[in-house]
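Forwarding the complex inputs:
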Amino acid sequence: MMVMILDAASISDLIAAIISLSVPMAFAALGELISERAGVINLGTEGVMLVGAISAFYISFFHHSDLFGVLLGAASGALLGLLMAFISISLKQDQILSGLGIYFLGLGLSGFLYEAIFSQIGSTIRITGLPQLPIPILSQIPVIGASFFSQDIIEYLAFVTLIIVIFVVGRTTFGLNLRAVGENPSAADTLGVSVTKIRYVAVIAGATLAGIGGAYLALSSHAFQAENITAGRGFIAVAMVYFGKWRPARAFFGTFLFGAAYLLGAFFQVVGSFIPYYFLLMVPYVLTLVVLVGIARGARSPSALGVPYNREGG
Amino acid sequence: MVRFKVTSRLEVSRRSILIITVLAYIVSPLVVLAVLAAAGRSPLVALDALYRGTIGTTAGFAESIVQGTPLMLLSLGLAIAYRGKVWNIGAEGQQVFGAILVTWFVLQFLKYPLPAYVMIPIALLFSLLGGALFAGIPAVMKSRLGINEVITTIMMTYVAVQALNWLVRGPFQDKSIPGSYPQSPVFPPQTALPIIIPNTSVTVGIIISVVSCFLAYYILFKTPLGYSIRAVGYNPSAAKTSGISVKRVVNSAMILSGALAGLGGGVYILGVTHELLPEQASGIGYTAVVVSLLGNLHPLGVIFSSLFFGGLISGMSSVERALQIPRTLSLLSQGIIIVLILIIQVLARYEIKKV
Amino acid sequence: MPTDMRDRSAPAIVMQGITKRFPGGVIANDMVDFELQVGEIHGLLGENGAGKTTLMNILYGLYQPDGGTIRVFDQPVTSRSPADAIKHGIGMVHQHFKLVSDMTVAENVVLGLKSPKGILTDTASAEKRISTLAEQHGLQVDPKAQIWQLAVGQRQRVEILKALYRDAEILILDEPTSVLAPSEVKDFFKSLRGLRESGISIVLITHKLDEVMDVTDRVTVLRKGRKVATQPTSSVNQEKLAHMMIDEVIPPVADKAKTAPREVVLQVTNLRVFDDRGIEALRSVSLEVRKGEILGIAGVSGNGQRELVEALVGLRKPASGSIAVASTEIAGKTPRSIIDLGVAYVPENRTEDASIADFCIDENLILKDFDRAPICGMLASRIPTLLNTREIKSRAERAISQFEIKATGVSAKARSLSGGNLQRLVLAREISGSPILIVVSQPTRGLDIAATEYVRSLLIQQRNRGAAVLLVDEDLGELITLSDKIAVMYKGEIVGLLQPGRFSAEEIGLLMTGAKRLVSAA
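Prediction (whole assembly, three chains):
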């Protein structure tokens, strides 16, 4: 499933692999962070990633355009985000339940679409991945050059997105309003800020990023497995926001820890070890649990996170 | 542009909840048929297959019950947990672990099995224990450290599934047959749940499930434990101020739901498969989330919603066979249904006015 | 409406025939007319629940009226949200401040506004402008400070600056003095007069008669959703106003029987408690409450009262020190064990901490003892079994009649009860067990006069029965009426312990603001 790293001694290959494995989660984590800073927790991220993945897979296979695949992934993410926003904001349903609904919907939709479209074509369907785009001069730097500066375009986009998110959330008026809505929506409301509008934008933007993450996952995996291409990455991304204490850079780089964890399983599958293969597959999940325990104390979430906003208290 | 305003109703009548629920029951199969029609298949053929697969034939009816039985136990557990606002999404992992523990127990007595009236109760007890223990970790993480239980229970499920994969290919694998199959040895007949409808797979499991629902009803509404779970679910702050130990309630709700999930896994393995297979992780734990919602988180409502869904699953298999449709259709329908339920339930609890 | 288009020769605000109904049949405003002249301070007077805040919330666009019209500077307006009201030049300072505590003053002020730098926030120019406005109107505050660092009086200034920054010419202030000490009130009124001189028209929502007489030019009285009268302040006095506000016969507060000092029920020694941010909220506080005595805790909110109460009822663990109830040490113990010693607690937030909105009256009444006899059947006197529905129902029936709870029945949800009835429910539960110590916080907040008097009588009754009562109250007048002794808290310490009869409200106010300290004079 993953591009195998046979030459483990090559550190730059290692770094490149980790980045590649982490980018989908990194996108999803950034997206979830935007949503949560506005006060909405979106547990449907996993489902959104799945839909993004199948969208990109479809476009890539039939129309041989990776970029349009990513675009469709983003668009389908936005649509699911719109649905999530509608249920949790306008209908004021419990955010946890709404998110789970999106998760199941995404799970079912992606699986169904894959079988409906591809089952007649054959058993193992593969697509070509994205080409690498080395940055001139910088890519000559030993170790870092071959990995960090020789990524494909979406990987670069991930880092650019991080910078954009940091900038928007911290330095723009929109970011200010967003943070206020997540901490004290009533305060924002009485000053004429539309809590509904900001939360809608935040949730849709977040889901769009998750869709891109899912799209990239399909493109970098070169294959699609109905139920498990994401294997919990969406939920890990949500955990990463918590882990990063709702700061963009921390959440972003936190996902790299997990990219490394996924890599471990793939690595040992090839090399072979005394640890049973399936135990290695458990590593990302156990790691999430350990990490959550480790940073449990002292994390302060946005004060209004998880609470639907009601102006008249009704 | 037309503007809407959503305000909550002051009194939500039981009648409107009932009407809305029935509405959801009716809409769900319609949704499935609509999806089929969209996929270019004949709804009439589908409808016929659906009917035969659910209540039209004895085989269909029995299958509905068989599918609904473990679902009932899992959904019941979730209903209790959700009443306490403990969002246990790991019923899947808990039922798998329950089955794992049952398998371990049975394998000890593979050569010299004890009589059924000893083996079965103890095995079921192990399944309860397995589910409870497995839920214990997320429980403690939430009550002591305040860690979101949705993420932890989902992570635990992935762990359980990998553990299952490992066990059926490793320590629990049936080494007595040639070749290497991911399955445990077949359980001795002394562990099989007695069948109550001849020539079917309907076992006492359904009785256990229904009785559990009635027990749960009493516990939830007539005992202090149930009262405290509901109180914490509605308002943890007021509950804590009044002396209720929120930690203890969260633990109880989580572990209780885990135990019931484990029991569901046990009922499934002792009643249907009679061996440990990778298919034990069938996704039933996720379906149970939908079913518990459809049952309005009420123990008695769960009886209906789980049998309904069991029928839906059985009916869908029948439709799949009749129309040659992929299995993932049920997955899709589930997803649509849960979203629909969330939207429909709004009608009961809120008024939507034009502004 | 652009600032220069406002017709300032017309009245600032004209509201006609405003009607507002809430779900449940409550008519908060019933054909109310209200008019605000330019450059006046207009008092909006009425008891709690009369509809004053609702009327102003409608003006500010937070609520939509069911009927009536509004004109601002002679332009008909419909404010669908505060954004509209702000555009028309209206600013509102709510009773509970709407500030984001982790953000700075400047950030809070510019929230929702377009920045001069386009999409980038421009805190520097905002800070400058805020300082200028602050100087101009005597509302000094540090624009770079984060809200959580500010005292209550300063936060109020931020709220006013928020409105002024947006070129508000009409200011609505909702019970602004409820969070201030008496001396701070004087300064506050001075600022108001200053604002009036600058041409700002002010609506002062209040239920305090002395304030109306002190600072307003005209006053409008509301009663039960209807307007009673509008008069120039010079033509009325407190008696006339009181008469307009209420017309019911109010049972007098029960007399406090004079008693000789009895044994100590609550003994607090050198208590140190930290708040959620790790700041020391209580610094070595010591106090005692005796049987049959009401100890009032006076102080501006935010000086450690909340942490004191939480430590007493087991919701917060003290860092050091001792709390003893009837000689039993309870510091750090769970709420359960403290309740079992006979401690009752009436929290200031009824709906959040004292009751469960979706539970019925009968279910709310058993919150503290649902797992013991007689509410619950017991096995071998130790193991709880089933809830005794008959007992539960009869307890609810008794409570409803004894405490005069107006509700549709024992199965009415707590959500459907009015503030006064909800408080009766809470008191019914807390007092029924004849507790030895009652901790009560802001007991009459938001209650109408009838309910207020009822609650006060009840507390006196309990005191006469022999309970020890610790009363935390921002309403200084109420505190003075009810307490046998008053302890004044300032910045986490007790700066004075005195008998209410011997000191005036002003003097107590000085202690509340830390201007004076008093060695025990009780």
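Chain A touches chain C at residues 171-177, 179-180, 183-184, 186-194, 311-312, 314 (CB under 8 Å).
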